[in-house]
From TrEMBL:
Organism name: Roseivivax halodurans JCM 10272
Protein name: Glycosyltransferase subfamily 4-like N-terminal domain-containing protein
Domain of life of the organism encoding this protein: Bacteria
Length: 405
């Protein structure tokens, strides 16, 4: 993989851990091979999240030095990116933190690994003798061409080409490397199996690659125990990427001012990495940043918001809200990746005007809010987002690869 492992509680890392859980439940031991350079991003030191250690996953990280639970890069590129990141942040501070947008290093996820990194990852993967090798995102799929495994799969959180198209429709610049669908299809050539976070992505890609097996693997939802207390609040949860930044801007400029004017005692909580994108002060808004225990933000007195318009893959935050027993309010575009699985569990809005009205209704009407919360809990307990096809695939693969199979 080509991602940092520090945060496993938000963003696409939640989906990755869902795959790990499903593989382990099926009976597989899971090893994680990390890209020597891209796995560090722009911070050359990494402490993998406790959630990974709790699952007893073995981490294999070529080109790094491990000291206890900390990995330190021995490659020059992560250190170079760290220096550039620090310089950009210094300029931002000198400019008063207002005249420029808070700096963020571009994502490396849409880039194929270098030949050197590919060789290191291939050697590490082949030394493990895997039954199934899974690359994360299409850009890493070319590595599979040299990996020796009975099954070679790709975990597709997003299709980069479709994500870019979604951004351009809103007049936004894509927040990642903009690649063509033809290039992505070429990258996916070595794979036998494609695992899709999004049902709509699967439906779009399956006709293009009919020779491969396609399985929809929605986010795993595990209900959590939460307390229905605290102030009446709306909650926006997310990592920092272009789609969430657009959704946050919509909330702060078009939705929340009207809601706060009518319901001055209600609060809007901004949770997660996306909080760093909030500039200035906004009435009734609390920026919490990273929250270690998400159960403290959930319950029936909190309304989970997904006003995302620029979308691809699936909105992980919706699955998180369901786990936390929260009524969920979403733009219809934000749930497209789930097909119609969540139509009864989520309050839907077609545009920002309807979104504002629905939020006012949920915050002002306790009966409506409680009913929506019950629908969330019911969807989570009913395993609405189960993945029976993947479970059958794993059982069949294990049976075929047993010594006596």
């Amino acid at each position: 993989m080509q991602r940092r492992l520090d945060d496993a509680d938000s963003g696409s890392a939640v989906y990755l851990l869902g795959l790990v859980d499903r593989l382990m439940t099926a009976g597989f031991a899971v090893n994680i091979v990390v890209s020597p350079a891209a796995g560090f991003g722009s911070i050359p030191v990494s402490r993998p999240a406790c959630a990974i250690a709790q699952r007893a996953c073995r981490i294999v990280w070529p080109g790094s030095l491990r000291i206890g639970s900390v990995y330190i890069s021995l490659r020059w590129r992560p250190w170079q990116r760290a220096a550039l990141r620090s310089l950009a942040h210094l300029v931002w501070v000198i400019c008063g933190r207002t005249h420029l947008a808070r700096p963020a290093m571009p994502s490396l996820i849409g880039y194929t690994p270098t030949d050197k990194d590919t060789a290191k990852m291939v050697d590490a993967a082949n030394a493990l003798g895997s039954t199934i090798a899974v690359s994360e995102y299409s850009a890493l799929a070319p590595v599979l061409a040299r990996v020796e495994a009975p099954v070679r799969a790709v975990l597709l959180h997003d299709l980069f080409a479709l994500r870019a198209e979604s951004f351009r429709k809103l007049g936004l610049a894509p927040d990642h490397r903009d690649v063509s669908l033809e290039r992505e299809l070429d990258w996916l050539g070595p794979a036998d199996l494609l695992l899709f976070a999004s049902l709509s992505d699967q439906r779009a890609l399956a006709p293009c690659l009919p020779e491969k097996r396609h399985i929809w693997l929605p986010p795993r939802v595990v209900p959590k125990k939460v307390a229905a207390d605290g102030p009446l609040r709306a909650v926006f949860l997310g990592v920092r990427h272009g789609g969430n930044i657009d959704a946050l801007d919509l909330l702060l400029t078009q939705v929340w001012p009207s809601v706060h004017n009518r319901l001055p005692d209600a609060e809007l909580w901004i949770v997660g990495e996306i909080g760093a994108s909030v500039q200035g002060r906004h009435a009734g808004v609390k920026v919490l940043g990273r929250v270690d225990d998400l159960t403290t933000i959930g319950g029936s007195r909190a309304v989970g918001l997904a006003p995302n318009r620029a979308v691809s893959g699936v909105s992980i935050k919706i699955a998180t809200y369901l786990e936390l027993g929260m009524p969920v309010l979403a733009m219809r575009t934000a749930v497209e990746g789930y097909g119609h699985r969540l139509d009864e569990a989520v309050v839907l809005a077609e545009d920002e005007g309807e979104f504002t009205d629905r939020l006012m209704d949920l915050l002002s009407d306790s009966c409506q809010r409680e009913e929506a919360a019950l629908q969330s809990v019911a969807a989570a307990r009913a395993k609405t987002l189960a993945a029976p096809e993947f479970e059958l695939f794993c059982a069949d693969l294990i049976a075929k690869t047993r010594p006596d199979g």
